Amino acid sequence: MNKSELINSLSEETTFSKKDVSRVLESFTRIIERALKKGEKVTLTGFGCFSISRRPARKGINPATKQPIQLPEIFVPRFKPGKNLRELVKCGIRVM
User: CATH number of the domain that 20 lies in?
Assistant: First the structure.
């Protein structure tokens, strides 16, 4: 499902206009982005938790030259699904 399909589904389910749903979705993502940028967690009980994960500096290998390189510490966004979401997906996914 892409963004426009999500907007359509939300609009049908809530009877709000697509324009209103789009605004809410844009605001939702901006709020999560701002919170993560500050280092805060965003928890939606039963759904999951958005957070930042630290990857420490490490040694790597340049695949083109096979030379060792030093990779810097980085911070990456992370999503940990909640128990309800994990159970729902575990019981309902059919792999084709």
Answer: 4.10.520.10
